[in-house]
Amino acid sequence: MLAFVQEKMTVPRCLATMIDSPPPDAAGGTAGRRVPSTPARRRGWWWPVGLLLATAACYFGCIDVPFQFDDQPAVLYNQTLRDGWPSWGMLHPPADAAGATGRPVVNATLALNYALGGANVRGYHLFNLLLHVLVALTLWSLIRRTMRLMSPAPGVSIDAVAVTAAGLWAVHPLLTESVVCIVQRNEELVALFFLLTLYAVNRSATTRTPLARRSWAVTAVSACALGMASKEVMVTAPLVAWLYDRTFLAGSFRGALRARRTLYGGLALTWVLLAWLVLNNAQRAGTVGFGLGITSWDYLLTQCRALVLYLKLAIWPHPLVVDYGSPVVHRLSAVWWQASVVLALLGATIWALVRRPAAGFLGACFFLLLAPSSSFVPLTTQTIAEHRMYLPLAVLVLLVVLALRRLPGALTGTFCFACFVALAFGTIRRITVYRTEMSLWTETVKYAPDNPRAHLNLGQALLTSGNAVDAVQQFETALRVRPDYAEAHYNLGLALSQQGRLADAAVAFKAALDIVPDYTIAHNALGTSLAQAGEFAAALEQFDQALGERPDFLDAQVNRARVLVALHRGNDAIADYQQILRRHPDSAAAHLGLGDAWAANGTSQEAIKELRAAVQQEPRLVAAQFNLANLLSADGRLAEAVPHYAAAAQEEPNKPALQIALANALMRLGQSREAALHYTAAVELQPNSAELRLNLALALAASGRLAEAIEQCQTALRLRPGFGAAEHYLNEMRSDLQKSASRP
């Protein structure tokens, strides 16, 4: 990237006299205008190679970033990805697929990733990075071709201008969310198709042969249609293409339509596709549109604040926030100066469209790109979002690069290189924040403390890491900000359940259901909590309600059958489990439940068979390993039981019951030395258990470590004075120790 900053960047009258387009040729274009071949142009292939390498190096650190935020519903819980590729299912993303909902092209690319590598996150990141590089290269090529339509001033390097603008844009930290978050590839896809549409319009107007012109026109319409199926912001692409034609190709709106009527007819038809997609995904699952709790006026005021924030982040990209929540401005007085800035910029754009068309085009392009998401149509889940600046940022960067023509050539190169390095390091640092959910949401809460969703996500990260205490604090903070936040009530219940506070957990689940009565997973969670508290009849009602709302809910099916066992309806439970396994033969939980049901009915061999299937499907399923070991042990098959006890203890080493069961089995097999190791581990977890101290003493004595055994017996007696068994074995051990000492 050193090369591009050394060339003089005196752009040909870009913002001042780069206004009047050259006269169109007979086809309404400028096919005859060609810049002569020069050594610099013959070396032009270095520019895209350098751009590709610099961008890839900057973002390569994101390859192992886990699925974050909306990635999980879009990828991990998106059943249409499992339909194979290609398939009709991938073109019909579900309503809960976050950024893929109503966007079949986005969902199709996710399905392709899943077909190639399943849920391996690396493939998804490589695809996102490839898209980002393609957008940067397309931007570079479009800038070059557009600037060649005008007479360059002496000493101007069009390639230097194009690669500088594309390079600074590609490594800007403001784009990190769009590249690193998997589902935000919708921004990359729509940007790619938007730029391809403009590029194809350019080629259609400037290509010499009729066949080539028609081919490029078809390419433009196809790219526009794909963009419409990628994200709704593509709605302005036909207008921007027409404005581009008027500014740089035909010289007037009428001339553009006259020369390329069929092309613009095709572009207009893509609006029909977009309308169909929008109508078939009404209000994008209740998050976009009118009558959803935010008025158009309030949303417009909020966007005044958002636009000024975006401009600030384009210049100084700190702090960056992945989720601002849904802040809403209700009074003009709260954003008067931001509104003034926006109005001034709009006024300048309108003036420039008349007096300085090239500059006016860039300004209009910026506003038109943001208009679908940042004007008066409310997007209720995210009123401010940095990823919306993915393509609009390219306009701002190009304006800055063009403005730098006023600086001396060497100073311009030095300044651009310094900016490139600073932006690249900023992006590399920002990527590190995405490496864990904990770091991402800790930073988000820091800069958006009033965002309840950020507190919710941080709480979920804490809960996943086993820190239920701090998770409860985050969920309670989210509820203080937004008391009617059903998801926060639900997650609070999960955290309380993890702490064993079952009654409090039930209250939290009921609060979630009061807000959202058909909250299916909350019914399931409440049923689980009630079952753990021994209220099996009430739990059964909750599972029935969950299945009434979602009959294919596997967790609720398994939990319901488990409750039937507790209600002594073993035959009903067995029938339910068998039906579940016919539909889900790989369900380890169903095999576990059926095994327990057979065991409760006294059919141990059938139980052992099902539990073996469970551990084969899921070796880390502790309950299956432990229950299987118990059945094998009861059947006198201790040697077979020990590996399953060991697997359970290895998976959850901090559960003393697992260590004790393994140690007991080892003692019965005569492996006292190994048993002593696991009794010791259990003692460390329960140091005040007199019985456990005695068991450890017996294992130590059996392995010939009498002095240590006596010490453990004495500790047991201190913990429980008068413990008869400990006194008995202590006397025996002392006697054995004296005998061994008296031997010659």
UniProtKB/TrEMBL annotation:
The chain crosses the membrane at residues 44-67, 124-143, 262-279, 334-353, 359-377, 389-404, 410-428. GO terms for molecular function: identical protein binding. PROSITE patterns: TPR. Gene3D superfamilies: Tetratricopeptide repeat domain. Keywords: Membrane, Repeat, TPR repeat, Transmembrane, Transmembrane helix. TPR repeats lie at residues 452-485, 486-519, 520-553, 588-621, 656-689, 690-723. This is Tetratricopeptide repeat protein. It comes from Horticoccus luteus.
